[in-house]
Design a protein that fits this description.
- The protein is α+β, with helices and mostly antiparallel strands.
- It has a single domain, classed as Purple Acid Phosphatase, chain A, domain 2 (4-Layer Sandwich), CATH 3.60.21.10.
- A 4-stranded parallel sheet has the order 1-13-14-15, with no helix packed on it. The protein has a 4-stranded mixed sheet with strand order 2-18-17-16, with no helix packed on it. The chain has a 4-stranded antiparallel sheet with strand order 3-4-10-7.
- It is globular.
- Belongs to the metallophosphoesterase superfamily. Purple acid phosphatase family.
- GO terms for molecular function: acid phosphatase activity; metal ion binding.
- It catalyses: a phosphate monoester + H2O = an alcohol + phosphate.
């Protein structure tokens, strides 16, 4: 398995690669890094935030991995629910299949979201390119995705690795860098801190919408595996908003139930020769908590003869010298 590492200059997240004991890993210094000054957010009229034409046209399209031979397509219609249907077909077929989804919405302080659609497509063929359409009439939009190969110990698979993306001018550079990389990642492992909307007055959730439109150019064509960071907490009692992760969990639908998790903040999935486990740095993880118990039960399921790579994703580094999160992951490491 190859790993394509693509970091924003301010990325401070952690990817843990847990290899088998028979593997010898040698650490070392590969180069020096001088952190840039913070880049400002792109203005609301930036072309990367452009709204698609047509009344109630689907926007913020994104794909998520489902277990085995499935994907989850998500999108938002801003004005009314519209259609929950996704039409899809393999590249070499003319027959269009139909999948029906659901929609949700939420309120956060003085913001009301659009209609957030999630549609699971199941029983797809391995390693196959599919076209798909969403929308009605003149607002129909077409995209494509490719399903992964069958899981196996020698199956090559390339992941992109991004964290702390935000929507600054540097964010645009980072995403462009990833898209132009000749390694061509097939799935993005995203390590938390998505839109940074909580940095705005009243946690301005319109910045979730701009971020979704910014990301669409990539996320509509390949799956992203999500990890929640501290900027997704959105715990704001001063605004009478006391439900943690509210915008994040409404917008990003992950297949947590398939791995017998009780929360979308921790789950597992397999891809290629890798077994991926996502954990939440900002949820309880003591020995009596649901997250700890789930992880305890999940680890024995890892079969190194089938998936020799075990990749654990979390936002807060367990080991770091960066002052932003210094010692923040210490209690999780001890547990």
């Amino acid at each position: 398995m190859a790993l394509l590492k693509v970091f924003d200059p301010c990325a401070i997240c952690l990817l843990c690669l847990v290899l088998s004991a028979s593997e010898l890993c040698n650490g070392g210094i590969t180069g020096n890094f001088l952190r840039k000054e913070y880049s400002p957010d792109m203005p609301l009229d930036s072309d990367v935030f452009q709204v698609p034409p047509g009344y109630n046209a689907p926007q913020q399209i994104a794909g998520f991995l489902n277990h085995d031979r499935g994907v989850i397509i998500s999108w938002i219609t801003p004005d009314e629910p519209g259609s929950d249907t996704v039409l899809y077909w393999s590249e070499n077929s003319k027959h269009k299949n139909r999948a029906e989804g659901i929609f949700v919405s939420y309120k956060f302080f003085n913001y009301t979201s659009g209609y957030i659609h999630h549609c699971a497509i199941k029983n797809l063929e391995y390693n196959t390119k599919y076209m798909y359409e969403i929308g009605i009439g003149y607002t129909i939009r077409r995209f494509w995705f490719k399903t992964p190969p069958r899981t196996g110990p020698a199956v090559p698979y390339t992941f992109g690795l991004i964290g702390d993306l935000g929507q600054t001018h540097d964010s645009n550079v980072t995403l462009t860098h990833y898209e132009s990389n000749p390694k061509k990642g097939k799935t993005v492992l995203f390590l938390g801190d998505l839109s940074y909307s909580n940095d705005y007055p009243f946690h301005d959730n319109t910045r979730w919408d701009t971020w979704g439109r910014f990301l669409e150019r990539n996320a509509a064509y390949q799956p992203w595996i999500w990890t929640a960071g501290n900027h997704e907490l959105d715990f704001a009692p001063q605004l009478e908003e006391t439900t943690p992760f509210k915008p994040y969990m409404h917008r990003y639908y992950v297949p947590y139930a398939s791995s017998h998790s009780t929360s979308p903040l921790w789950y597992s999935i397999k891809r290629g020769s890798a077994y991926l486990i996502v954990l939440s740095s900002y949820s309880a993880y003591g020995k009596s908590t649901p997250q700890y118990k789930w992880l305890r039960d999940e680890l024995p399921k890892v079969d190194r003869s089938t998936t020799p790579w075990l990749i654990v994703l979390m936002h807060c580094p367990i080991y770091t010298s960066n002052w932003h999160h210094f010692m923040e992951g210490e209690t999780m490491r001890v547990v």
